[in-house]
């Protein structure tokens, strides 16, 4: 101890013993020395006085010195010499004393955390909280696969659940809803202006039957496309938590069975569309199956443009519904695919398809951001990890595009004034969430907020378009308030020639006034 005290005198006086760093003190007093020497050292009055001085306000700089040098401490303890001393000291009453002495020092160490270490810690904590906040619940295919796996092998319910999981039921139902919504928004009331002798008006029974054919054919075609999508990706689906429970990955359905199921659903779906609607709708559906299964699916591992191709796939079903309704109003000379797709009356269908095309980006970009690391590990080329900044910009850009497309539906006369109010509120909500998503780059829960905004925004637009369809409430308004139908002042004058061989001469022609219904444009 005489040697230790003399060493401390050389390093500093009794008033500034706390200025000794941990490395210097270890050189003088190695931790491998006998415990008796440490006890004697801790119980010395001079060391207690130095601890008391270190707790005074004037010694804050000394605590910072120890905090900055604790990383260089080579002692086995994580907190350096102070922690080792408090642990190894076994003198009665010295344990509580050492804990009370080191508690203020630990608090000061936390407060004096270096800036770069603090930024790193906050970044790691934010990433952990962000990952925990964006846990995606299992989709319908995963749930059906889990149900199928619990049933007996020979059970029909097991096979039915497994094959139903191949169809991605929620996605298929969404496609059907967008198709039938466009069918319902078509201005069928314009048929009243046609001459029944030229084009018979579709009755309620024929319109309902067409809608049933359209619904069943679209669902079966979507089932085929989704099954082909799963057939090409079981090896990569197994690497993602979102898709690892799909039936082909778990072996609930054989590859041969999936191929036969895809062929059967495609043949039956396209057949229903051909006989129940028109060949143009059938061609659009067949093109969508090919585009989704044979272009979009392999392109996901090649280039980020796959997201735009997938958006085209989502925009075709509304156009199918519009063309299916237009087929019932087709007259002689106006029933070709060019007239149904590229005539003036087809603008409404293209606008509805544009809504679905633009909606894909805020919806998918927010969803993919939450599992971007899994996409990267599986080798899928997605903007969420190849270019996160562009991923957020694209989501914001197409969210803003919703405004002019919605206004265009009102401008061409598909919907009424009420649609402007509802669509403006829904689109404004989507843009607000997309802006936060872009500003925070998906952090702080903004990806989740944009995802749920897109989930609710699309039904608001589709249901709002059906409710505010142009001319839908005119008859209700007249019946409720007793307003008579507007008189049509449009008259047609034509000459009717009367020929008679055995009668006296009559005027060569007589002017007859005939009224006709107003045209749709009027």
UniProtKB/TrEMBL annotation:
Compositional bias segments (type: Basic and acidic residues): 122-133
GO biological process, alphabetically ordered: heme A biosynthetic process
Compositional bias segments (type: Polar residues): 61-93
GO molecular function: protoheme IX farnesyltransferase activity
Entry keyword set: Heme biosynthesis, Membrane, Mitochondrion, Transferase, Transit peptide, Transmembrane, Transmembrane helix
CDD domains named in the record: PT_UbiA_Cox10
Membrane topology type: Multi-pass membrane protein
Broadest EC class assigned to this enzyme: transferase
EC number: 2.5.1.-
Main localization of the protein described in the UniProt heading: mitochondrion
Region (Disordered): 49-135, 494-522
Biased composition (Low complexity): 49-60, 504-522
InterPro entries: Protohaem_IX_farnesylTrfase (IPR006369), Protohaem_IX_farnesylTrfase_mt (IPR016315), UbiA_prenyltransferase (IPR000537), UbiA_prenylTrfase_CS (IPR030470), UbiA_sf (IPR044878)
PROSITE patterns, per the entry: UBIA
GO CC, alphabetical: mitochondrial membrane
Compartment(s) where it occurs, according to its Swiss-Prot or TrEMBL record: Mitochondrion membrane
Record-annotated membrane-spanning stretches: 171-189, 209-232, 253-275, 281-299, 306-327, 347-367, 400-430, 450-468
Family in the record: Belongs to the ubiA prenyltransferase family.
Protein task: Converts protoheme IX and farnesyl diphosphate to heme O.
Protein name per Swiss-Prot or TrEMBL: Protoheme IX farnesyltransferase, mitochondrial
The organism of origin for this protein: Aspergillus nanangensis
Lineage: Eukaryota, Fungi, Dikarya, Ascomycota, Pezizomycotina
């Amino acid at each position: 101890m005489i040697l230790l005290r003399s060493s401390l005198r050389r390093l500093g006086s009794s008033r500034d013993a706390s200025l000794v760093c941990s490395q210097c003190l270890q050189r003088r007093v190695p931790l491998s020395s006998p415990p008796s020497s440490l006890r004697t050292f801790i119980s010395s009055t001079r060391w207690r006085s130095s601890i008391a001085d270190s707790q005074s306000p004037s010694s804050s700089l000394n605590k910072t010195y120890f905090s900055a040098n604790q990383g260089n401490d080579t002692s086995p303890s994580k907190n350096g010499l102070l922690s080792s001393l408090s642990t190894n000291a076994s003198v009665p009453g010295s344990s509580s004393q050492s804990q009370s002495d080191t508690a203020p020092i630990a608090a000061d160490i936390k407060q004096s955390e270096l800036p770069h270490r603090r930024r790193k810690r906050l970044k790691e904590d934010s990433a952990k909280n962000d990952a925990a906040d964006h846990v995606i619940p299992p989709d319908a295919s995963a749930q059906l696969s889990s149900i199928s796996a619990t049933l007996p092998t020979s059970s029909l319910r097991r096979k039915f659940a497994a094959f139903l999981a191949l169809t991605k039921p929620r996605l298929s139902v969404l496609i059907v809803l967008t198709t039938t919504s466009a069918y319902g928004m078509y201005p069928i009331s314009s048929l009243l202006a046609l001459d029944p002798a030229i084009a018979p008006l579709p009755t309620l029974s024929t319109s309902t039957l067409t809608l049933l054919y359209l619904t069943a054919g679209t669902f079966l075609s979507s089932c085929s496309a989704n099954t082909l999508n799963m057939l090409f990706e079981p090896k990569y689906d197994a690497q993602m938590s979102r898709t690892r429970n799909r039936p082909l990955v778990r072996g609930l359905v054989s590859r041969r069975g999936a191929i036969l199921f895809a062929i059967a659903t495609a043949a039956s779906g396209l057949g229903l569309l051909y006989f129940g609607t028109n060949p143009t709708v059938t061609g659009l559906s067949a093109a969508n199956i090919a585009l989704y299964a044979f272009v979009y699916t392999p392109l996901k591992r090649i280039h980020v443009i796959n997201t735009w191709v997938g958006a085209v796939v989502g925009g075709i079903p509304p156009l199918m519904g519009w063309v299916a309704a237009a087929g019932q109003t087709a007259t002689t000379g106006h029933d070709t695919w060019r007239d149904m797709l590229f005539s003036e009356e087809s603008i409404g269908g293209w606008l509805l398809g544009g809504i679905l095309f633009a909606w894909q980006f805020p919806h998918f970009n927010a969803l993919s951001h939450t599992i971007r690391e899994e996409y990267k590990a599986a080798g899928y080329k997605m903007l969420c990890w190849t270019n996160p900044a562009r991923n957020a910009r694209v989501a914001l850009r197409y969210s803003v595009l919703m405004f002019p497309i919605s206004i265009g539906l009102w401008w061409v006369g598909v919907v009424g004034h009420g649609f402007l109010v509802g669509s403006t509120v829904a689109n404004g909500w989507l843009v607000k969430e997309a802006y936060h998503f872009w500003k925070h780059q998906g952090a702080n829960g903004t990806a989740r907020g944009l995802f749920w905004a897109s989930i609710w925004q699309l039904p608001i637009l589709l249901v709002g378009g059906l409710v505010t369809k142009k001319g839908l409430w005119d008859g209700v308004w007249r019946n409720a308030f007793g307003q008579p139908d507007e008189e049509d002042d449009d008259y047609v004058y034509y000459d009717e020639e009367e020929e008679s061989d055995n009668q006296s001469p009559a005027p060569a022609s007589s002017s007859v006034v005939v009224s006709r219904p107003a045209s749709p444009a009027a």
